[in-house]
């Protein structure tokens, strides 16, 4: 039996980051993975989808080359090569994690890990033990009873990023990040896309102004948008899938080659031995305290298997916090009110903190500012004028309550607001921080200026 200080079950962005931090802190560490290092994020999620979206962006540039004074006489796409590039990027990232494991002297155990009582893990018949076992098994595409995935006509995100042949038509069910990113990619590639969302707005967790702008942009791009609608049943018996969609006006039948189910994720808790150990779960999540300890001493859980935002950067932060607490460091619990969310469709969306509606409901008196990219010199020069930056401040104390962005490159800009909120920056301090010109980031300063009645370029 092999003995470790820490064993991590799962090598996604929560698991492998936790393992590296544990090794850095002098703990003998092993990581167990049944597939490829890097988990869903590196192999089937965050990274390969961004590779697909980059191909879509380049293709869009070619289609609109004349807008930039350029003439491109002949161009086309090779869908297979686009997918292959994405897979190659994912493979390269996974190899990067392999390198990090070797560099940090972390033992990689390949196989399916099952928890046992007494701080043990069984991996395909071989037993390992550790003082601390961290569960980081991630999540998978959630299946609804009326949207059973067959991997061919009704697919999840894995199949969506590795189809051998581009479908001529697609119905996307759900308009969270996964749904809208694939809707944008396939639409850009030339697939006829319809997106069906049960709630009144696309990207329904975002600020309402962002959701409305996003819907306008999607419709302008040629995507059919059906909100306040739900797919009641699917008929996959024919060449095309027939989807019965319930709308406010009654039922409507849609046809498409493929239906992509993007209705959320389900934690990977089955078969990993939680019941054998006695670890408490609730509503498909493992219950933990502020430092990710379960109800059973020596067992911890992070990432998509615990309550909270199912985001790669959250899982990584939880892994580091968990391990530093194990190592005896003085650590602060994560502030879940300051977690940025990013959606990488076109236009991009990035946000942190409260929406305007949430801030009002919390009883704050607000100062709200907005700066459109149509008034930005950099956005105009780039040909990317859709969108805006919106900021929300507490009128009484100047606290930065929320920041919401939609437009080109905003996912690279949101960290300013995250850091500002972490440091308890006020609106006037943001105004006095000189932003470089011409940049998209100036829109943050200008939006703050608008909130305080000092905007120059509007």
Automatic annotation (TrEMBL):
Top EC class, one word: oxidoreductase
UniProt keyword list: Cytoplasm, Disulfide bond, FAD, Flavoprotein, NAD, Oxidoreductase, Redox-active center
Localization, UniProt: Cytoplasm
Protein origin, superkingdom: Bacteria
Domain FAD/NAD(P)-binding: 4-319
Principal place of residence: cytoplasm
UniProt domain Pyridine nucleotide-disulphide oxidoreductase dimerisation: residue ranges: 339-447
Protein family per UniProt: Belongs to the class-I pyridine nucleotide-disulfide oxidoreductase family.
Extra information: The active site is a redox-active disulfide bond.
Protein name stated in the entry: Dihydrolipoyl dehydrogenase
Taxonomic classification: Bacteria, Pseudomonadati, Bacteroidota, Flavobacteriia, Flavobacteriales
Gene: lpdA
């Amino acid at each position: 039996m092999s003995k470790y200080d820490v064993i991590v079950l799962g090598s996604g962005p929560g698991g492998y980051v936790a393992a590296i931090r544990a090794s850095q802190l002098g703990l003998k560490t092993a990581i167990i993975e049944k597939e490829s290092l890097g988990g869903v994020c590196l192999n089937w999620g965050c990274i390969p989808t961004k590779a697909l979206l980059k191909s879509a962006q380049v293709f869009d540039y070619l289609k609109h080359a004349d807008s930039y004074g350029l003439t491109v006489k002949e161009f086309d796409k090779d869908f297979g090569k686009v997918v292959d590039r994405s897979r190659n990027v994912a493979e390269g990232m996974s190899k990067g994690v392999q390198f990090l494991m070797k560099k940090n002297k972390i033992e990689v155990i390949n196989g399916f890990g099952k928890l046992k009582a007494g701080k043990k893990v069984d991996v395909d018949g071989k037993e390992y033990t550790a003082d601390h076992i961290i569960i980081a098994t991630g999540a998978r595409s959630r299946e609804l009873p009326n949207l059973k995935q067959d991997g061919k006509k009704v697919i999840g995100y894995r199949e969506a990023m590795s189809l051998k042949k581009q479908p001529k038509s697609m119905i996307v069910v759900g308009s969270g990040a996964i749904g809208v990113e694939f809707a944008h990619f396939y639409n850009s590639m030339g697939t006829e896309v319809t997106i069906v969302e049960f709630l009144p707005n696309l990207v329904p967790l975002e600020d309402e102004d962002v959701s409305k702008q996003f819907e306008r942009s999607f419709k302008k791009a040629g995507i059919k948008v059906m909100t306040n609608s739900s797919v009641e049943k699917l008929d996959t018996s024919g060449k095309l899938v027939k989807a019965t969609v319930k709308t406010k006006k009654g039922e409507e039948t849609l046809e498409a080659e493929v239906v992509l189910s993007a209705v959320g994720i389900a934690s990977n808790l089955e078969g990993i031995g939680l019941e054998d150990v006695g670890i408490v779960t609730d509503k498909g999540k493992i219950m933990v305290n502020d430092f990710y300890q379960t109800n059973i001493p020596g067992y911890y859980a992070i990432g998509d298997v615990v309550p909270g935002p199912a985001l790669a950067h959250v899982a990584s932060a939880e892994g580091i916090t968990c391990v530093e607490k194990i190592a005896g460091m003085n650590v602060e619990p994560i502030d879940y009110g300051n977690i940025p969310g990013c959606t990488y469709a076109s236009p991009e969306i990035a946000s942190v903190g409260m929406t305007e509606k949430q801030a009002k409901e919390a009883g704050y008196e607000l100062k709200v500012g907005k700066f459109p990219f149509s008034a930005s010199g950099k956005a105009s020069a780039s040909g990317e004028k859709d969108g805006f930056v919106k900021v929300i401040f507490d009128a009484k104390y100047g606290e930065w309550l929320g920041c919401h962005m939609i437009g080109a490159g905003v996912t690279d800009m949101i960290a300013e607001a995250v850091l500002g909120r972490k440091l308890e920056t006020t609106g006037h301090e943001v105004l006095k921080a000189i932003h470089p010109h011409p940049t998209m980031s100036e829109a943050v300063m200008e939006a703050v200026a608008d909130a305080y009645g000092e905007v120059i370029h509007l």
